[in-house]
Amino acid sequence: MCHLFFLNYVIMKIIGITGTLGAGKGTIVDYLREHYGYKHYSVRGYLIEEANRRGMELNRDTFVVVANDLRAKHSPSYITDQLYLQAAENGENAIIESVRTPGEVESLRQHDHFLLFGVDADPKVRYERIVGRGSETDHISYETFIENEEREMSSTDPNHQNIGRCMQMADYVFMNNGDFEDLYRQVEEVIQHLEA
Q1: Cα–Cα distance for residue pair 16/97, rounded to 1 Å
Q2: Can you state the angle between helices 60-73 and 43-53, rounded to 10 degrees?
């Protein structure tokens, strides 16, 4: 006697977030977590754990060094691949913050139901935001802020950050020069379009 078993496969959505420094990546993450139940996987969190394991000081320069080292030793998409594996094991809709190399985008695009969101804002608006949030990596001058951004926007090394190219590869880009409600409205329009 033959028995047929039908498995219900849950289609997991993965959204990657890329964007300029202080543009509002975390705000989009929080919105998707709170309103749509997305699980959050953070490149920054992964790098903090790795930097702690290596006994290194926690600052932006350290995170860049650690990230570049991991990518050079393994692959340009190594960090987000690790986060994707965690998300796949969990099986729920997930958001991966922050996608920073074209290799990460290309690797994540190999999986069904992946979308890349980009977020940007005027530099002075973004600088005021990062000074206001005051995390361990945000105590910098405006000049250093601009230098960091320029360094991370257009590297030709596939193991280094290239946010400019990632933004070009994004499926949707949000401009976040306004308040929270304006950004939420933009995100909501995209989510409703995707679920229509």
Answers
A1: 6
A2: 90
Domains of the chain: 14-195 (3.40.50.300)
Mean pLDDT of the 114-124 span:
96
pLDDT in tens, 83-111: 999 999 999 999 999 999 899 999 999 98
The bridge status of strand 14-19 relative to strand 39-42 is unpaired
Could you tell me where the DSSP H helices lie in the chain? 25-36, 43-53, 60-73, 78-90, 102-108, 123-133, 142-153, 163-169, 180-195
- Which of 173, 136, 115 minimizes the C-alpha distance to 51? 136
CA atoms within 13 A on the CB side of 76: 18
Q: Token pair 């910098």 is at which residue?
A: 140
Partners of residue 97 on adjacent β-strands: 17, 42
In the structure encoding, which two tokens stand for residue 142, read together?
């405006």
| Burial degree of 141 (CB within 10 A; 0-12, 13-18, 19+) | exposed
pLDDT beyond 80 at 46: yes
Alpha helices in 141-179 (DSSP H): 142-153, 163-169
